Amino acid sequence: MNKSFLFSLVLSVAIILTSCQAPVNKPIPANLANATLYATLYQQQASEYKALCFQAFNLASLRLEEELLLKKSKPLAIVVDIDETVLDNSPYQAASIIGNFNYPIQWSEWMYSASAEAVPGAQEFLSYAAAKKVEVFYITNRKEEFKQVTIKNLNETNFPFADSIHVMTRTTSNDKEERRQQVLAKYDIVLFVGDNLGDFNSIFDETDASVRTTQTIENRKEFGKRWIVLPNACYGTWLNALPGYSNKISTDSLMIILKNNLKGF
Ligand SMILES: [Mg+2]
């Protein structure tokens, strides 16, 4: 067998093997991923985003100081969400835009990298709470399979109470009420911190934008009091609640639906 024949044979086999590989991640059209381009840039680049996060945690500190002066029958706790509340997943969002894919493609890879950085002000606030002997529970809708890497990520970014008891991942339901009740059985929850209104109360899990708006107005006094909100324009129940929204339709159809939800003059 001469060298050139052998080379051709190896090359042919390589081409056949490559062409036989099943597509692991089916790319979605660019426009769909780029729907979040401005939101992702805002989260990564706008100082206003960081300022809003600092503002939220500064307010949380003031509220905690007030609560610490009151007499409580049970030990105190703070309940926080994880994604876009204490850990910043914008590198995943950015990679999805650059690589033209959408959630959940490559989400596992991002989770197992355990490399998310802290949301501005989050670590300082929760460390302050821990120093005041207030326990922190992380109620997240990350799946159980990501629990250990989430704990690793939280530990490496110096968050307190990053252990298997205090990190409460999603089990059967996205609804966080059952897990909130587990904490409430033993603790007085003085503050809830989250980027999605479902992090505060299940009334916001209603997938209808107008119902969510009504509930938000009715509960306006809770914001900045017991409920501390972080900004997240990239994703959340607010997006799924838009009339007609679906992540399973064509790019063109989605763009029409998104534009139909704009309020012009
Ligand atoms: Mg979140």
Outline of the structure:
The protein is 46% helix and 12% strand.
Fold topology:
Blueprint: H1 3-20, H2 30-34, H3 37-45, H4 47-68, E1 76-80, E2 87-88, H5 90-99, H6 107-113, E3 117-118, H7 122-131, E4 135-143, H8 147-156, E5 167-170, H9 177-184, E6 188-194, H10 209-218, E7 227-229, H11 237-240, H12 251-260
Helix pairs in contact: 3-4, 3-5, 4-7
The chain binds magnesium ion (MG).
Molecular structure report:
By secondary structure, the protein is of the alpha/beta class. It has a single domain (28-260), classed as Rossmann fold. Helix content is 46%, strand content 12%. It has twelve helices and seven strands. The protein has a five-stranded parallel sheet, sandwiched between helices. The protein has a two-stranded antiparallel ribbon with strand order 2-3. Mean pLDDT is 89; it is low at 9-26.
Features:
single chain; 265 residues; alpha/beta; Rossmann fold; two-stranded antiparallel ribbon; 12 helices; 7 strands; 46% helix; globular; binds magnesium ion
Indicate the CATH architecture: 3-Layer(aba) Sandwich
What name is given to the CATH topology? Rossmann fold
- Biggest sheet character: 5 strands, parallel
Question: Which ligands occur here?
Answer: magnesium ion
Strand order of the largest sheet: 5-4-1-6-7
Please, what is the CATH homologous superfamily? Answer: HAD superfamily/HAD-like
Number of strands: 7
Structural domain count: 1
- The CATH first-level class comes to Alpha Beta
Question: Structural class per helix/strand content?
Answer: alpha/beta
What is the 3D shape?
globular
